[in-house]
Design a protein that fits this description.
Blueprint (H helix, E strand, L loop, with lengths): L2 E10 L4 E3 H5 L6 H8 L3 E3 L7 H16 L8 E5 L10 H9 L5 E5 L5 H14 L6 E7 L10 H4 L5 E10 L4 E9 L7 E2 L11 H5 L6 E2 L1 H22 L9 E4 L4 H11 L7 E2 L1 H4 L6 H11 L8 E8 L3 E8 L10 H8 L2 E2 L1
Parallel strand pairs: 4-5, 4-6, 11-13
Antiparallel strand pairs: 1-7, 2-3, 6-7, 8-14, 9-10, 12-15, 13-14
The structure holds acetyl coenzyme *A.
Acetyl coenzyme *A binds next to helix 2, helix 6 and helix 8.
Length: 348
């Protein structure tokens, strides 16, 4: 099999910024509590007209442009999301139409916050096998539309956004080297949006019981995340015949700075090699890893031939880690978002 690597990158976030100070006016919380417990300072919130398909299409458009591809060059669109525009059709089909990628097959992938890393493993295989040549992989979520804004234990954590990559054949030994995917359905109840689908359809009762909102056992999810992130990333690195010392950049799912710090310690990676932007976006679910990759690349941290490890965890419960050799040459141009990224915190 040939290899598949990232040859294009894009991101899109809503304009509206919601700060911790704004949240102090909405629920009984404080900037200090949110910052100390999560590392989040602000997040983006989608407007009425901004959905997974519109944000996903904007990120994908930029990814195609940076890869120098036309919409007609795209053979496959995979959209990782758990906050689709509708139960069906898939968000990938809506993006296909918005972009005019009329030749592309399209489907959604549901693995919550692990969705992008799951998608990177799966989509890369489809490209490496020769089944598809140019694939768009989008990670997008608008979980603020599923938040109970009176529940301080969840509403301070999430933000909206989209990130997209183009995957295409690259020379062997570069691109995706290996991955580790896993799931534990016995933890399904720990993090869920129970209403609005087959089990609890929309009804007066389900609305009264607030079943359309995110429910989470924060402490259990925290314990799971800390354990699984380090273990899964270590397994993926080992499967590639590498050690943590070989890793140039660790780009984890951005849910909580304490989870990231614990996983970093467990994996034995130098904290200076960890990319962090949770402070500016909160937990954007399936979008967090591609947004972090985008900012790490455009701020000059990620360089061609760097070995990068990404790891996600989330509802399901699910987890996914990927090891890749970065295949994009230095960015030729800086757009508004990347210029902002360059000024941002990022690497520590
Ligand atoms: N502001 C102020 N106080 C709060 C807030 C808030 N926003 N939220 C909870 N508290 C209070 C609690 O009521 C509790 O008060 P008490 O001691 O009087 O009972 C106290 O703070 C401590 O609460 P804990 O839940 O123990 O706080 P913890 O340190 O565990 O932090 C947090 C909570 C941030 C939610 C943490 O558990 C966490 O990050 N969990 C993982 C969540 C996560 O990453 N989920 C996304 C997974 S990805 C996906 O698939 C969507």
């Amino acid at each position: 099999m040939r290899s598949a690597g990232i040859v294009g990158l894009g991101m899109a976030v809503p304009q509206r910024v919601l700060t911790n100070a704004d949240l102090e006016k909405m629920v009984d919380t404080s900037d200090q509590w949110i910052l100390e417990r999560t590392g989040i300072r602000e997040r983006r919130v989608a407007g009425e007209d901004e959905t997974s398909s519109t944000l996903g299409a904007a990120a994908a458009r930029e990814a195609l442009e940076s890869a120098g591809l036309d919409p007609l060059d795209v053979d496959l669109i995979v959209c990782a999301t758990t906050s689709p525009d509708m139960l069906f059709p898939s968000t990938a089909c809506l993006v296909q139409h918005q972009l005019g990628c009329v030749r592309a097959a399209a489907f959604d992938l549901s693995a919550a916050c692990s969705g992008f890393a799951y998608g990177l493993a799966v989509t890369s295989q489809l490209v490496a096998s020769g089944a598809f040549r140019n694939a768009l992989l989008i990670g997008v979520d608008v979980l603020t539309k599923f938040l109970d804004w009176t529940d301080r234990s969840t509403c301070v954590l999430f933000g909206d956004g989209a990130g997209a990559v183009v995957l295409a054949p690259v020379e062997s030994g570069r691109g995706l080297l290996g991955f580790d995917l896993g799931a534990d359905g016995s933890g399904a109840d720990l993090l869920t949006i129970p209403g609005g689908a087959g089990k609890h359809p929309i009804s007066e009762e389900s609305l009264r019981e607030k079943l359309r909102y995110i429910r989470m056992d924060g402490q259990q999810v925290f314990r799971f995340a800390v354990r699984v992130m380090g273990e899964s990333a270590a397994r993926a690195v080992e499967k590639c015949g590498l050690t943590p010392d070989d890793v140039d950049w660790f780009v984890p799912h951005q849910a909580n700075i304490r989870i990231i710090d614990s996983a970093t310690r467990r994996l034995g990676i130098d904290p200076a090699r960890v990319y962090v932007n949770v402070d500016r976006y909160g937990n954007t679910s399936a979008a967090s890893i591609p947004i972090a990759l985008y900012e790490a690349y455009h701020s000059g941290c990620l360089k061609e031939d760097d070995t990068v490890v990404t790891v996600g965890f989330g509802a399901g419960l699910t987890w996914a880690s990927c090891v890749l050799v970065w295949t994009m040459p230095p960015a030729g141009r800086q757009n508004r978002q990347s210029a902002a990224a360059a000024e941002g915190v990022g690497a520590r």
